[in-house]
Amino acid sequence: MDVWVDAPARPTAVLSTATSPLGSQANKDELGRATWTLLHVLAAQFPEEPTRSQQKDVKTLIGLLTRIYPCADCAKHFKEVVRHDPPTVSSGTELQQWMCRVHNVVNRSLDKPTFNCNFVGARWGALDCGEQLACDMTVGRPRK
Questions:
Q1: HSE-CB for 94 with a 13 A CA cutoff
Q2: Separation CA 38–CA 78 (nearest Å)
Q3: Which pTM does this prediction carry?
């Protein structure tokens, strides 16, 4: 059975459930990798001078992940990690460093290798959207 990720008009994005060891169910490792990719790319896109609203939105997203993440044990652990090291969101650089730092805390708890946060920009760079300003989080932001 095939599952469409994008609209059927774009058949290049088809996942075969036969490729997953759990059939149609995602496993914790797949979920974790996808979540960390999303969070790191978000941090890479985050403006150097975010609005208060953008700062609040990122904190809200992180908070939500500590409460509604599909893996309850993961959510509980992440909540403790965030409690000990709350998100720093005053700039994109700070958010990228925080994200790398907490990812390393999680990796250590899972006996996985950690990443040198000095190279976070090279590992998780900004998204290449193709079009100029297509994925710029500051578009539509009021001028100072």
A1: 13
A2: 16
A3: 0.75
